[in-house]
Amino acid sequence: MELRELKYFIAVVKNKSFTKAAEDLHVTQPTLSKVVKSLESEFDAALFYRYPRHIELTDVGEIVYAQALKMLSIVEELDTALEDVLQMKKGTIKIGMPPLIGILYLPKLLKGFQERYPHISIELVERGANIIKELVADGVLDIGFVMLPADENDFQVIPFASQDLMLIINKSHHLAGSKEISLRELANERMLLFSQDFTLHDRIKQECEQAGFTPQIAYESSQWDIISQMVEYNLGIAMFPKSFAEKINQEKVKAIPIVKPQIPWELVLIAKKDRYMSHATRGLIGFITSSHSNLE
Questions:
Q1: Residue 106: which domain range?
Q2: Where is the HTH lysR-type domain (predicted)?
């Protein structure tokens, strides 16, 4: 049994005539009669009482008609739903990001995307980059913003932004007068780091060790605003990307370039390789790829 056969059968019932149904369907009457006969053979029962001047449904025909209407309705709903998804009229995207991303880029990025695709739902998960990588790998998240490194064997990696880290210190700090600072000069300073599920935590520790010292970690937090306020109260120093350093309370805090070495903060978008990607997610990645240079 095919959907085409059910459509032909329904047309006969609605027109109460093989001749009129054949005209509506643009097929010959013998073709239509053959299709109905095929259905009757499959069900092993007559679907119509055939009289000289009219036709009527049998009891079996009534059942087949009612169920055929339901089946065609489901197929039409499926076609509509698929069209909506393919045309990006609906869908849900789960995005993971560290808190800094939400502050620096996400509002403007999502505003532009949702103006273009207003019926796509976005679910945001704020976690450290290390956790986000795990969630993307496990399929919990569709895509994620993370700081490099990211394993290109596991992920599709799309460059998004690149900046250098800046030293964030209280204006009363003895290093506040410096125009630039080397990492080695921070060997005896109390550091405020993002917590261990953030890639930036590992990166700063690694850079310090390569510079010849183990950082003195005073506090760890997953919240950028807590770290920023701790710097305002001179509880330690911190390192933030340049764009974020420009947003700090400049009455109490100062941002100084770090040299020897410069520490890049390279932000990428990741998606799991070899996994089906929804049209909505593909659309967002395409939007980000085409527009992210205007967001920096």
A1: 91-160+267-294
A2: 1-58
Residue pointed to by tokens 């993307």: 136
Burial code (b: 16+ CB inside 10 Å, e: under 16) for 143-174 equals bbbbbbebeeeebbbbebbebbbbbbbbeebe
Task: Dump pLDDT digits (tens) for 38-56.
Answer: 999 998 999 999 998 889 9
CATH of the domain at 45: 1.10.10.10
Mean pLDDT of 117-138: 88
In the prediction, which pLDDT does 155 show?
94
φ and ψ at 211, to 5 degrees?
-85, -5
The helix or strand, by DSSP H or E, that contains position 146, with its residue range, turns out to be: strand 143-147
CATH number of residue 283's parent domain: 3.40.190.10
Measuring CA to CA, which residue among 209, 206, 208, 231 is closest to residue 218?
Answer: 231
DSSP letter string, 34-66: HHHHHHHHHHTS--EEE-SS-EEE-HHHHHHHH
In this structure, what is the dihedral angle of CA atoms 93, 98, 104, 109, given to the nearest 10 degrees? -10
CA dihedral 128, 132, 135, 139 (to 10 degrees): 160
Quote the number of domains for the chain. Answer: 3
Q: End-to-end CA distance of the chain: give it in Å, rounded.
A: 58
Task: Specify the DSSP class assigned to residue 293.
Answer: G
Give the pLDDT score at 251.
Answer: 86
Number of H helices, E strands in the chain: 11, 12
Q: Which of 7, 26, 2 is nearest to 69 (CA)?
A: 7
